[in-house]
Design a protein that fits this description.
469 residues; Immunoglobulin-like; 19% strand; 11 helices; 8-stranded parallel sheet; 2 domains; 5-stranded mixed sheet
């Protein structure tokens, strides 16, 4: 039994009185807030996206006067409880869009309180171009001049010869073993009585010059060997296995170093400064050949894509096409514009695999562009085909550059058969078998040099014109 009924009733009256004094006469509207959305700011989306879904903090409805847009597209909206689906038409490739939901377009379902203006920016994917049909024959439109408008007279002479010779003759070449000598060219001469038209050196250790790591490399000999080969009527090529610019490792393989090539776009980064320092160092070497009047077939950043199936091989390709292309362009501007190296003929090397994939979209994304390359090459090591034809690779390489560039077999395991090159149409500007066993061993090219040099289609050093005048 309640022994204090009057006191209990009094307490209830006091409580109700206090509540009635503190409560407002009207409950204010609750503004709907976007809590989640099906895309994120600056996300790259497919062109068939079609709908964007937002989840609000309270149940909502769409105003009859809503004016929602996605870029220039008029959008429609449907509300279900807290969810709003924004639908719109087809999007274009490689374009930035802004979804805009103006204030008052979305309302609180219960009291019509308007949501504030909401915007989000996103971009669409780049168009993936289907692989083109491989034509029966290539229609060529080779650029008439080198990419460097200030190219030396010797570069112009060599380029004009390679351009006019392309499709009718194939130049022979050998690599240095390991990087500064002409031992393989000497071996071929001893074997055949003829010198290869081109000899190629490698600046693989140059950025460690003066350290214990490369104390065995004679760069003065590389310069003198290059000058001698040029003075004796041959052509000189140089490639560059570029070691880790940070010096954290003495490696160039991407799985052996964490060097971040994407920093080439950040001029304040230590990685950018390291790369520029190395490029400047190499420029010192190349200037020695410039001063001697030697044009150089210059092939840096080779095989950047690596393998479609197995991924990148070298650090300069480890962050994708955009970073590598930027590095190529930076190097070009640094060597040509800043250092004035007008003795370079620029060779870009593409990678292609024998797999069913969108090779054209992939390879063209890595290609630095018509303004930055004189020659486009491909490296092929195929023991199964051996000296056989690679006409599909030849045509694909040509198509990547719009059939505007000289096409070369910039590295190979086997010299392609001169007869097959002529009959099948894969008439490379020059071939360059790798050094050592690839040049000398019978299972590769050891006994093949004599056969190749018997063909009038293959050019040896004695058959080159005088490029000096």
């Amino acid at each position: 039994m309640n022994r204090f009924p009057c006191l209990a009733a009094l307490f209830v009256l006091i409580l109700l009185s206090a509540c009635s004094k503190n409560e407002p006469s009207e409950i204010p509207g609750i503004t709907p807030k976007v809590e989640t959305i099906s895309i994120s700011e600056s996300e790259t989306v497919g062109v068939n996206l079609g709908v964007i879904t937002l989840l609000y903090s309270v149940p909502v409805k769409v105003s009859s006067t809503a004016d929602i847009t996605v870029g220039s597209l008029k959008a429609t909206a449907t509300a279900t409880n807290k969810s709003v689906a924004i639908r719109f038409g087809s999007l274009e490739y490689d374009k930035t869009y802004i979804l805009k939901i103006p204030s008052g377009s979305i309302l609180n379902k219960n009291d019509n309180a308007p949501a504030e203006t909401y915007t989000i920016s996103f971009q669409t994917e780049k168009e993936v171009v289907a692989n083109p049909e491989i034509p029966q024959t290539i229609t060529w439109n080779i650029d008439a001049t080198p990419v460097n408008p200030n190219a030396s007279a010797q570069v112009k002479n060599v380029y004009n010869y390679l351009r006019s010779n392309f499709g009718s003759k194939c130049l022979s070449g050998t690599m240095a073993e390991v990087n500064w000598n002409t031992d393989n060219a000497v071996w071929v001469h001893d074997k055949t009585g003829k010198w290869p038209a081109i000899t190629c050196f490698d600046l693989i250790h140059y950025t460690r010059k003066g350290t214990s790591f490369d104390s065995w490399v004679d760069y003065d000999a590389m310069v003198s060997n290059a000058i001698d080969y040029w003075n004796n009527g041959g052509l000189v090529a140089i490639m560059w296995h570029w070691l880790d610019p940070s010096r954290a490792t003495d490696q160039f393989y991407s799985d052996k170093t964490t060097f971040d090539v994407s920093k080439i776009s950040d001029v304040n980064s230590s990685q950018y400064k390291d790369m520029i320092k190395d490029i400047d160092s190499v420029a010192v070497f190349l200037k020695r050949l410039k001063n001697a009047g030697v044009p150089v077939i210059w092939r840096p950043l080779h095989e950047a894509e690596g393998s479609y199936r197995y991924g990148d091989w070298f650090w300069w390709g480890s962050k994708g096409a955009t970073a590598c292309v930027q590095l190529w362009k930076t190097m070009y501007e640094r060597l040509v514009t800043y250092h004035g190296l007008n003795n370079l003929i620029w060779v870009w090397t593409v990678n292609l695999d024998n797999y069913d994939y969108l090779w054209y979209a992939d390879a063209t994304s890595w290609y630095p562009g018509r303004e930055y390359a004189d020659i486009i090459g491909i490296d092929i090591y195929d023991d199964v085909v051996a000296h056989g034809s690679h006409v599909d690779f030849f045509k694909k390489t040509a198509l990547i550059a719009g059939s505007r560039k000289i096409v070369t077999l910039s590295e190979c395991g086997h010299i392609p058969d001169p007869a097959q090159m002529q009959s099948n149409g894969d008439k490379w500007s020059y071939f360059m078998p790798w050094y050592g066993d690839y040049t000398k061993k019978a299972s590769y090219n050891g006994e093949y040099w004599n056969y190749a040099f018997q063909s009038s289609f293959i050019v040896t050093r004695d058959e080159l014109p005088d490029f000096k005048n």
